[in-house]
Amino acid sequence: MAVYYGVLTVLALGAGILCWSGLSRWKSILFGFAALLLLGGLAAFRYAVGYDYTHIYVPLYFQTLRDDLSILGSVHEPGFMLLEKLLLFFTPNYQALFIATSFLIYGLTFYYYWKFSPNICLSILIFLLLGQYYSSMNFVRQSMAVAITLFAVPFLQKRRLAAYLLIILLAALFHKSALIMIPFYFINLIPVSWYTLPVYTLVTAVAYLLSGKVVAFVTRFWYSGYGEPDGEVISAFPFPFTISMAIAFALLFGGYKRLRSLNRSYYIYVNYAFFALFFVLMGTRIAILDRFSSYFDAILPVALPLLIQEPEDSKAAEDASPALLPHTRLSLRSSILLGGILIWGAAFHQYVLMKDNHAVVPYRCIFNQPVYQEYTEGLKDDPIGAWEKLLIHWAAGEIDILPEQLLAVPEDPA
Question: How many C-alpha atoms does 214 have within 13 Å on its Cβ side?
Fold first, then answer.
């Protein structure tokens, strides 16, 4: 936990210094690049951090090497399998997968922040505080899909369906759950406002009551492993996550007029906050449904800083990227709002790490792990043998994981 707080402290201090002196275009690039190196490096060189690290991704890399799995012949998405094939062309070391995916996820995400957020420093801090960084070290394929779907949002705002669909289909090559964003193109045409909120609320209540039957039906055909008695479908997600998303929605819904004054299409951010809350709430009944919230809460690090944007910048916002808006001093209202967001984020961040739903605590690094060092040495002479020794070490208790999960890829991976 200390490692994560150390990184958060460094980024917060850097953000404070840059924002105090006036956040220019080049300072934004500098901060984004530094954050990419720091957060990307931390995730790239992790060791057995995140449930799916050892449950899915290490066994999958091994099986692809050993059995020469085809891109289209795997239960995993073809885009991800193509990435694995490319990496295996260069090295049998599974860590290459985490290096590549980490810098892809955060590179795409931070570029989007730089292009569309009024303050990339605050966006990256919110990304950390809301726990999105930690979930990305567990749900690797889905996090890649989420990072890609971010780039569909501008096309949704401009009502460009074809471009939107192309991006969603690209994201689905890494995790097919991204396909849920196709119907939400049309749903998002209806703003969440005081007039429509009662209807959205009623639909949410009905969906909550019927969610068990719907998921039971769907898992008969798709992700059937989640329908087992001990599957993730049966469990429920903790309510504090719902409370956090409710705060985010309340802030954005309360700032609806301000967002519309900056740009009329920014109502989309209110919609996304509502649907993030919707799926997190569904997760309190059936945990797997919470996973869909990632496609919507990913926009919060861009949306929340817009609430702090001063009104005098609204005219510029209509014709320019928010990242290029002129720097202004914060009013008392904006300062209080910023303080509230950071306090809420800090409290939720502590809860996320204490709850540790993604198994990211404690942080381990490959550079001080004897078993990993033995594995890399063995790769030079006998790649398959090195893999088998690694799995034996883990199955013997070196890593808390069941042997059968190491020796075979699950039929229905997350």
Answer: 11
